[in-house]
Amino acid sequence: MSTEDNKRLVERFYEHLRAGTIGQATDVVTANCIRHDPSGREDPGPSGFAARVGRTEAAFSDLVSTPNIVIAEGDKVAVRWTITAKHTGPRNGFPATGRSVTFSGVNIFRIENGRIAEIWNHRDDLSVLQQIGAVTLPA
Fold first, then answer.
1. Following DSSP, what letter does each residue of 103-135 receive, concatenated?
2. What is the longest distance spanned by two Cα atoms in the chain?
3. What is the DSSP string of 46-79?
4. Which of 14, 15, 28 is nearest to 112 (CA)?
5. Prediction pTM value
6. In angstroms, rounded to a whole number, what is the distance separating the alpha carbons of residues 41 and 43?
7. Dihedral of alpha carbons 135, 132, 64, 15, sign
8. Do residues 59 and 90 make contact, with C-beta atoms less than 8 angstroms apart?
9. Long-range pairs for 7-12 at CB < 8 Å and ≥24 separation?
10. Are 108 and 98 in contact (CB under 8 A)?
11. Which residues, 6 or more positions from 12, have their beta carbon under 8 angstroms from its beta carbon?
12. Per residue in 43-76, pLDDT tens?
């Protein structure tokens, strides 16, 4: 696949996320796709992605994920994204606050045989914790 094909594949991944159909994204994600995450959870394959999205949506409503920059080279595609949402459910032991949050991150995708085989996810969790009042940094 060309780098443009790989970028289109990753764009379809984000379309599935926005549509809530990531659990059926077998046309985009391999059955054993690994998602490397700072939390240590891997949640493999489309069903793993659906479970992760479900946990996120249980804590954050009105979630909007926007890919800001998409760069591709060889079998890798990097996406810098921004999420806006409202903290309306418990998350990692912190109760809902009703506060709006905005945070960003980067996903790096590895494409294999026309599907996403691996994702490295890096996001600004500290910013989220600050915005919901769970962490206060010294001035």
1. EEEEEEEEEETTEEEEEEEEE-HHHHHHHTTS-
2. 50
3. HHHHHHHHHHHHHHEEEEEEEEEEEEEETTEEEE
4. 28
5. 0.88
6. 6
7. positive
8. yes
9. 7/70, 7/72, 7/77, 9/77, 9/111, 9/114, 9/115, 9/116, 10/70, 10/72, 10/77, 10/79, 10/109, 10/116, 11/67, 11/70
10. no
11. 25, 27, 28
12. 777 788 788 888 888 899 998 889 999 999 999 9
Architecture of domain 3-131: Roll (3.10)
Give the span between the Cα atoms of 96 and 129, in whole angstroms. Answer: 12
- The mean of the pLDDT values for the chain is 89
CB contact at 8 A, 45 and 31: yes
Instruction: Quote the distance between the C-alpha of residue 116 and its chain's center.
Output: 14
- Interatomic CA distance for residues 11 and 9, integer angstroms: 5
Please give the distance of CA 3 from its chain centroid, rounded to a whole number. Answer: 21
